Amino acid sequence: MKALLLAAISLLFSAELLLGPAGADPYVIEAVRLPRAVGAVVGGVLLGLSGLLLQTALRNPLADPYVLGVSGVAVLTALGSYLLWRLVGLPYLGFYLGALIGASAATAALLLLANRAGILVVLMTGVLLSYASSSILQLMLLALPPEELGYLYVGLQGSFAAYPAGVPGVATALATLAVVVATFLNLRHVAALMHGEEAAAGLGADARRAVMYVVGAAAVGVGITVASVGPVGFIGLLAPHMARWLTGRHRADLVFIETAGLGAVLALAADLAVRLLLPRELPVNVLLSLVGAPAAGWLLWRHVRKI
Amino acid sequence: MYVRFDVVKRLGDFTLEASGELREGLTCVVGPNGSGKTTLLKILAGLLKPDRGAVEYVGVGARTYVGELYVPPDATALEVALAGRSRFSSLPVGRRDEEAAMKYMRLLEVEDLAERRWRTLSGGQRQRVIIAAALASEADLLLLDEPLSNLHGDWRSRVMKILADYAAAGRIVAVTTHHGDVLRCCDFVLALREGRITWSGAAGDYNEFFESSCDRRAKN
Amino acid sequence: MNNKLSTALSVVAVILAAVAAALAYQAYTATQTEVKALAERLGKVQQSLDMLSNSLAKLAEEAAALRAEVRAVNNTAAAAYAQAKLVSEAVSRPAGAVPVKYAKLFTISYEGDIYVLTDAMGRRVLAVPRGLPQDLLTYYRAKYRPDVVVEYPVKRVVVMASTHVAMIYRLYKEAGRPDILRSVAGIMWGREYNWYMPEVAAMLENGTITDVGPAYSPNYERLTALKPDVVFVYFYPGPYGTETVINRLAQLGLPYVVVNEFQEPSPLGRAEWIKFFAVFFNATRDAVRIFDAAEARWNSLAALAADLDRPRVAWFTIFGGVLYPAGPQVRELIRLAGGRYAYANYSRVDLEVVLKHRNDVDVLIWSSYGVSTIQDIVKVEPRLAELRPVILGRVYAYSPAFYQLANAYPDKLLEELIWIIHPEALPPGNFTLFTPLR
């Protein structure tokens, strides 16, 4: 399975680099397609990983990375920076930096909370953060004339093409690698959380460290993803389930690599489909929703059936 | 190796006040429902902090507590057994962990169920897998809360024998039960009632009107 | 002879010989000494000759070095002279700023035929004429440190927004410069829109203008193939906004300038961006003339409408059950066109306000397009049928060309509004930006 995934990723990555209207022009590949391909891998890996960690710790198969509210806050600060430039004339930080500021603040707050309370409190805070940031966003948008709102709503959708090139891109990729390695080093304790925090502690896992790690890694993963490619949905929800289905395994530390791999595969495949199969470019979220919503529905049905 | 405790813990309007000692071997903690057996075990495991007093561990390395365990319905039996290997490392479980888990599953005769989904297993099978998980931790102090629930007669005594063998290798094992018929398998008995220890000592001295269905292990 | 004689003779001979020998020896040593002295003197002369030749060689070296120095000095002097000539030339160029009265988001200043512009993102743009001498270019580059340098007149441009195409179109039409229109090589969203500028529509149809894909994700390969001299973009944030596109353009090395005319608070401010565009087509004077004419027309229209009675004008649209009223800019526009905004006393306008004043309104302007009859509006919200303008048939809506052309033709905007509000003062002609609804 791992070998198969590696082959699939290599194939899709090469396709992403080489296929396109301009053919195999090396200049276009480097400037336009490489950031997009890397963005898909980074987003897919981080979202799959975050989804797996959260589904394990929350013992809920329908948890997805955005449940922590980090992406809402990140988009809020990014848009806030734009509005400050537009209305007051302060320098525009750029979407990447603006989102990173919000993501860092939300991550720090959630970690502080995880340190003092259990993961359910963190979850509730995350949901509240999501609603609050969404509402504040709508309020902020009142400052703009209504004709521009349509552009903004579309503009804030996720897109792998937005992945930064140059130094920020390399730094983001390295940060992704760091998150993956750090997860690997904590994975057994996190996997024990599937039995509940107290049971995991009883079995000898460091449950508190595991919960802190889940919150921290998921928040950082979402933060990096939203800052670099914007909010891309469904991969965080679906990749862990696909990995469990394909490997026949359930424990987080036994499906981790497959989850990350499948996240990358999903992202690359979606981006290739948007680029090559659709007559016109749509936000990748649209395609993922078209596939993701029925898939999530099927998951829900299986879940309900068992109860 | 031993564990000495002298603790007070209040939970709601129930108060546990207990002091005593656990020695190497198998200890049965008995008492009716609500007498504080689970509370005591959790305190000994370090999962609950006593309001007053402390627990002293002498020569004890790792501790494991296994009681009510939530298991996702799609997890396999082997994966549940692997949960017992959580204390050994923070890296993902590997071959050695699987072998250890299988070894204990074999001991409880559930190794055929390794790849079966949890929801397809009977209560008794699930219980034995959970016990295998507990044993797989190879802890010096093993605390099992109602390990015999869902097990019927034959397996009750067999599990007690397995636990006694485990303890005989120089470990402390304490199990709670409200079945009286397995007391003969234990080395020690701790009796609780309404949050207080009413009796503690060697099992042989404990008078109990149930017929024990267990053979006493021959002491050499 | 006797022996005595011969002996005496012999002795004398011997003595003579001895004396001769001594004399000869003397002469010999004397000659030796002379010769040695001569040799010494010759040696000295040789030494002096050597020293002389060394000195001569050194002199020759120094002469060469001096010559080199002189050459260097000459070069420096030449460079300094060239620099001085440059600076004096530069300084002597007429410098100043193109007057920008209403727009706040761009500036244009010039030095001779060099233009320095700031675009909507505050980037400095240096526009230089083709064939500018290299040293002047270096000088100006060093002086202004621009974010982008563009040679004008541009031969090939790519345009991101239809409103920008409209401004370029106005420039071409009213300056009589077909080369301006011909330089539009690519438009984003080209084939998606209906175009209300017939030449542009035709050029898109026959492929003279390439459609380079949607603005939020253009076909970079097609774009690069067009080799544009400049790309006109607008700025929206976000991964799916034009922010990403701009980053890509920068990465691909394509020169771009940011035109956010929609951010200007006033219609004249938006239209004034025509001056910005004009610099790149070497049509600045024409643009100033065109704008001044538009401004003059605007002012005369406003003067015309200023003293007339003010009919009450309702301006809103309903979308998805939500009513979107007129913003402050539109209210100002209504005032200039000689009308009175019907809901001026309300800070918040919703359907109940509109219905409450259904009989207090003279004209209704529906601020979106896609409707062609009054029935269409009533279909959106049936209770609007009770509005007085609806009953009287004085209902207008945006035409599909409104968003494309309004920014570039503010004078037309004001004119058509006066047609709508004061048909008695200015008989209506052919509506372009608004549609009278039947």
Descriptive labels:
heterotrimer; A: 307 residues; mainly alpha; 12 helices; B: 220 residues; alpha/beta; six-stranded mixed β-sheet; three-stranded antiparallel β-sheet; 9 strands; globular
What would you say this structure looks like, in words?
- The complex is a heterotrimer of chains A (307), B (220) and C (438).
- Chain A has 12 helices and no strands.
- With 307 residues, chain A is an all-alpha fold.
- Chain A is globular and about 55 Å long.
- Helices cover 26% and strands 27% of the residues of chain B.
- Chain B is α/β, with parallel strands linked by helices and 220 residues long.
- In chain B, helix 3 crosses helix 4 (123-136).
- The longest helix of chain C has 90 residues, at 3-92.
- The termini of chain C are far apart.
- Chain C has helices spanning 3-92, 134-144, 162-175, 178-182, 198-205, 220-225, 242-252, 267-271, 273-280, 284-306, 328-336, 351-356, 374-380, 388-392, 402-405, 410-421; strands at 95-97, 107-111, 114-118, 124-129, 148-152, 157-159, 184-187, 210-211, 230-233, 256-258, 312-319, 322-325, 340-341, 363-366, 395-398, 434-436.
- Chain C has 16 helices and 16 strands.
- Chain C is rod-shaped.
- Chain A binds chain C through residues 20-22, 25, 27-28, 31-32, 78-79, 81-82, 86, 92, 94-95, 145-148, 151-152, 154-159, 161-162, 164-166, 229-230, 280-281, 283, and chain C through 121, 213-214, 216-217, 219-222, 224-225, 236-244, 247-248, 251-252, 262-263, 324, 327, 403.
Mean pLDDT of chain B: 89
Main beta sheet of chain B: 6 strands, mixed
Number of strands of chain B: 9
Largest sheet of chain C: 6 strands, mixed
Q: Which structural class matches the secondary elements of chain C?
A: alpha/beta
Gross geometry of chain B: globular
